[in-house]
Design a protein that fits this description.
Number of strands: 21
CATH superfamily of one domain: Response regulator
Number of helices: 13
CATH topology of one domain: Rossmann fold
Distance between the termini: 53 Å
CATH class of one domain: Alpha Beta
Structural class: alpha/beta
Strand content: 15-25%
Strand order of the largest sheet: 2-1-3-4-5
Length: 454
């Protein structure tokens, strides 16, 4: 049996695509190692093919992709297949090949004529190409043994035309396009048949998903209605008109759609937002968040922030810090600005020294950590539902709440793994919840574990 070793870089969308590739290799009779949840490890010299799925969001990520190709060749890999965002940038193909990539699979390639599930394909580059570029009618379901994690991302959308001044993604991903709802349903059914109990709907600009008159809330509602899906989580969405509908669905779904909203901010300064070519003001962003939290007071609220963008003054940064301190964020990803060649921002004046970018990033990260701990502490005495994923070191089971907080239920049996556990939060250790089982009756619609004690 031939063996493929995979390494995935970047976001949830990349991991969703990489799982399609893993499934396609497994369906073609290959042994698959590595990926988002590797059960085995190997070096590149021990396998027939090394597959690298790349990220191009920063220049450093692109350089890292080239470095990994070079390292695989040094380790003895004969066949190195590269895909993902770096492979989609025409100018990046030459450096990848110079580093030793034998195949560079780009979205600019012609779509395959053969169905992605036809099987019998032995050429690894063709397998990768079919898994990533197949039409929606030839979607690849996960192989029965390809996935073991309790949650899995499902790609429903690709591409973006917003053209933020710091972002290369539109060049790598192309124009927005959506997977039709029937194909999303098929993909989710296939995913849960392999073990995962939570579906993460993801895309480049997920809020732009459309299928005729249907929008993102309609897709999430349809997936949440599938009998074998315990719950649905919506990945990062841009602040736009889809947000109120998503929040309303979360409020109505009784936990089937996780009450988490990841809404990138990037800056709290209107001047910097304009330079970034973001399509909202700080006031509009604040109002969107406040309306969401009014509907869902314990909403898990995440965001992304870039500090040290060209032209950002101390006053601009102070506005960002103040907005992050004001709003009830539970999860803040802080990024010191990184120049990305090929974007307008890379040549903007007012470069902030790297040391100052790091200082601002630390100040914001420290504030974010405090807010996350306060958010977790606010659940003490409340009930949560936890997707049990593993046995906890201290006994019981561990997993994640719908609000995306780590949690341990100390009196839950190991048999609860793979189910939703209803528990009362008794304390918070930093940003982690410590819980006890509730004694309520089980919900008929979903396998939710509760205590059997009288």
């Amino acid at each position: 049996m031939k063996t493929m070793l995979q390494h995935v870089m970047g976001c949830r969308l990349n991991h969703a695509e990489a799982e399609r590739v893993r499934a396609a290799f497994a369906l073609a009779g290959w042994r698959v190692l590595g990926g988002s949840s590797p059960s085995e490890s190997a070096t590149a010299s021990q396998v027939d093919v090394f597959h690298l799925h790349t990220c191009a969001v920063t220049a450093r990520a692109q350089s890292e992709a080239v470095r990994r190709v070079r390292a695989a060749k040094r380790a003895g890999a004969e066949r190195v297949v590269v895909s993902g965002c770096v492979a989609n940038l025409p100018a990046a193909a030459a450096p990848l090949r110079a580093a030793g990539a034998t195949d560079v699979v780009s979205r600019l390639d012609a779509p395959p004529q053969v169905g992605a599930n036809d099987g019998g394909v032995d050429d690894p580059a063709s397998i990768v190409r079919m898994a990533l570029l197949a039409t929606s009618q030839t979607i690849v379901p996960p192989a029965p043994d390809a996935l073991r994690a309790m949650r899995t991302p499902v790609k429903i959308q690709d591409g973006c035309d917003v053209r933020c001044s710091y972002c290369i993604v539109p060049d790598a991903r192309g124009a927005p396009r959506s997977l039709p709802l029937p194909d999303i349903i098929s993909a989710c059914r296939a995913a849960v048949s392999s073990g995962p109990r939570e579906i993460v709907l993801t895309g480049v600009n997920t809020a732009r998903w459309r299928d005729g008159s249907l929008t993102l809330p309609d897709a999430a509602r349809a997936v949440a209605a599938l009998p074998d899906v315990l719950r649905v989580r919506v990945a990062s969405v841009e602040p736009d008109s889809a947000v109120p509908g998503i929040v309303e669905l979360m409020a109505e779904s009784e936990g089937r759609v996780c009450p988490t909203l990841h809404l990138p901010l990037q800056s709290g300064s209107d001047r910097i937002l304009r330079a970034m070519r973001r399509r909202y003001t700080a006031t509009e962003y604040r109002e969107t968040v406040l309306q969401a939290v009014k509907r869902l007071p314990h909403l898990g609220l995440g965001t992304d922030v870039i500090v040290g963008f060209p032209g950002e003054t101390e006053d601009d940064f102070a506005l960002t810090l103040a907005l992050v301190e004001e709003l009830p964020f539970s999860n803040v990803h802080v990024f010191p600005y990184s120049e990305r060649p090929g974007t307008p921002a890379a040549s903007m004046p007012g470069v902030v020294p790297p040391s100052e970018r790091r200082r601002r990033a630390k100040a914001l990260s420290d504030a974010a950590a405090r807010k996350r701990e306060l958010f977790a502490a606010g659940f003490v005495g409340r009930d949560v539902e936890i997707l049990a994923e593993a046995t906890a070191a201290e006994g019981g089971v561990s997993g994640w709440s719908g609000e995306y907080l780590r949690a341990a239920v100390r009196d839950a049996p190991a048999s609860a793994i793979g189910t939703l556990v209803r528990a009362r939060v008794v304390s918070a250790d930093g940003d982690a919840l410590l819980c006890q089982l509730r004694r309520d009756a089980c919900q008929n619609a979903r396998p939710v574990v509760s205590s059997v004690a009288p």
